[in-house]
Design brief:
heterodimer; A: ABC transporter involved in vitamin B12 uptake, BtuC; B: about 260 residues; alpha/beta; four-stranded antiparallel sheet
Chain lengths: ~325, ~260
């Protein structure tokens, strides 16, 4: 018991170090190479003027954006998989990201130049999609696979709506193409501030409810008979998931598969207990998005691949593998 | 002590249980029997507050439970539900989840909690499995682990919904014996059973239901003598005394 805890804590520390290393590396690579010593100098208040500008106005916000986006989507994914009891569910697969995207793009079409409104609109879009999928699962008693297919359908409808809005309102400031694939280029500290605060708060709240998430995986009847208010808890957790996905999508666009892949990888490393699962997913999500964003910048210089493309290249095959190798299609 | 007062309940527009009133006693095993669809499981779900009755109320120690929080209720009543998922979780951790109604915040188990969970595992004979994962167990072992979880709740009332389904005969008898032992220690054990032989063998009180209504109740002997089972199930019941003096009930059907 004690050994297991030490083992898990060790893994979390390792992940933390890896994430810090990746974050530093991601600030040193780009159109001009900056050595890590120079980055540390700037961050501690020194360094030359040009490197100060590059780091403070381009690379630091982008690195922070990658961390926030990865953390938010991964923790959102853990919650959604736990609440739906479905290992195939991921925020992008069941339409939660598209819902957030629709909210964000509608907001920027009708309320341009409103930095605070975008994440809030994205939250409502994500919440709408969450509620729709959850209600479908609940009312129809559909199998896990049917639920995933329904989610894919909902996701396509919402994506079509996003396309429609972006054509009817070309001035919607988001840059529709880049928004649809998910990208971190050009994210400003200003656009990041509200989502970052929301992500931190919602992650802390999810950690506070980790024991309740453990109980929910035992099924409603068991959870309720030991005294959990299952409806209330699920509702609150879905709101947290919507806040997280909405926050990420509001500045990064439709970055996919983080919320599907990371929880599985984290479960492999630290097991099913949600306290550890959330902490590990938070770090691994941040690590994954940072590394993918870095690779997108350096692989094909001078061209830059948006992070969403790299993640889909990884996530698509992973999803297929999951479909055929997990017993997710059948109920246990 | 649990009382069910004028319970009417069901799903959709159909009433599965119609105006049933029952009173259970502590220290006794009460078994609900009846043909498929008679409403016995629905009644148990109402007693466990998993289903809200259309009419009537569930009373514990004289107090209506309608306004109770789930945690308050879970300190009085534990349930072994019929359908149990097979989570990837250690046996010890699962049983400890039975302590949830008593946990404060943050959710940390006290030494007391761990002691009670360990005692529950010893009583159901699963203590040596505590390091294994629930998914590694056989159906019978899993049943006992979930029973240990319900017992870790340390409640005066224990509800068991068809606890012997999918179990082989040895485990069935073991479970019936365990239910009796728990009642002797003062618990109020209420269960739904499919198997009439087993039900009459282990119950202190038999409750017979049909089409959502109460058809009769009493000790196995009284129920046998009233022939209510013959009418409800369309069978002929027999009472046999074994060589060791034990009384057994058998059922045949006219061809």
């Amino acid at each position: 018991m004690e050994n297991m805890r030490q083992h898990k804590t060790g893994i979390l520390c390792g992940l933390l170090l890896l994430t810090i290393a990746a974050a530093l590396l991601s600030m040193s690579f780009g159109s001009t190479y900056l050595p890590i010593s120079e980055i540390l100098k700037v961050l501690t208040g020194g360094g030359s003027g040009s490197s100060y500008n590059i780091i403070m106005y381009a690379r630091l916000p982008r690195m922070l954006a990658a961390l926030v986006c990865g953390c938010a989507l991964a923790v959102g994914g853990v919650i959604i998989q736990g609440v739906l009891g479905n290992p195939l569910a991921g925020p992008n697969i069941i339409g939660v990201n598209s819902g957030a995207g629709l909210g964000a793009i509608l907001c920027s079409a009708f309320l341009p130049a409103s930095m605070i409104a975008v994440p809030i609109a994205a939250f409502f879009g994500a919440l709408g999609a969450c509620t729709l999928v959850y209600t479908l699962a609940r009312k129809t008693g559909a199998s896990r696979m049917t639920l995933i297919l329904a989610g894919v359908a909902i996701s396509s409808i919402l994506s079509a709506a996003i396309d429609g809005v972006s054509i009817l309102f070309p001035e919607a400031a988001l840059g529709a193409n880049a928004f649809m694939v998910g990208r971190l280029a050009g994210v400003t500290t200003k656009a990041l501030s509200v989502p970052a605060v929301l992500t931190i708060l919602a992650t802390v709240a999810a950690l506070a409810l980790s024991y309740e998430l453990d109980l929910l995986t035992l099924g409603d009847e068991v959870a309720q008979s030991v005294g959990l208010s299952t409806k209330l808890t699920r509702g609150f957790l879905l709101i947290l998931a919507a806040i997280l996905c909405g926050a990420a999508v509001s500045f990064a666009g439709l970055v996919g598969f983080v919320g599907l892949m990371v929880p599985h990888a984290a479960r492999f490393l630290v097991g099913n207990q949600h306290k550890y699962l959330i902490l590990a997913s938070m770090l691994m999500g941040a690590l994954l998005v940072t590394v993918c964003d870095l690779l997108g910048r350096v692989l094909f210089t001078p061209y830059e691949l948006p992070v969403g493309i790299l993640l889909s290249v990884l996530g698509g095959p992973f999803f297929l593998w999951l479909l055929f190798h997990q017993r997710g299609g059948r109920r246990p | 002590m649990m009382e069910l007062n004028h319970i009417t309940a069901g799903y959709g527009t159909k009433d599965v249980v119609k105006n049933v009133s029952l009173c259970f006693e502590s220290g006794k095993v009460t078994v609900l029997v009846g043909p498929n669809g008679c409403g016995k499981s629905t009644l148990l779900r109402v007693a466990a507050r998993l289903l809200e009755p259309r009419q009537g109320n569930v009373v514990i120690d004289g107090a209506d439970t309608a306004g109770w929080s789930n945690r308050e209720f879970a300190k009085k009543v534990a349930l072994l539900p019929q359908v149990r998922p097979v989570p990837e979780i250690g046996v010890g951790s699962l049983v400890l989840h039975g302590r949830f109604p008593y946990l404060g915040y943050p959710r940390r188990y006290s030494t007391e909690d761990r002691k009670i969970a360990e005692k529950a595992m010893r009583q159901t004979g699963v203590l040596e499995l505590s390091e294994l994962s629930v998914s590694q167990l056989s159906g019978g072992q899993r049943q006992k682990v979930y029973l240990a979880m319900a017992m870790a709740q340390d409640t005066p009332i224990l509800l068991l919904d068809e606890p012997t389904t999918y179990l082989d005969i040895n485990h069935q008898l073991e479970l019936a014996h365990l239910a009796k032992k728990l009642a002797q220690r003062g618990k109020e054990v209420i269960m739904v059973l499919h198997d009439l032989n087993l039900a009459l063998g282990c119950a202190d009180t038999i409750v017979v239901m049909n089409q959502g209504q109460l058809m009769g109740m009493g000790s196995p002997q009284q129920v046998y003598e009233s022939k209510v089972l013959d009418r409800v199930f369309g069978v002929i019941s027999h009472c046999v005394t074994l060589d060791n003096g034990q009384v057994q009930y058998l059922f045949t059907r006219e061809c």
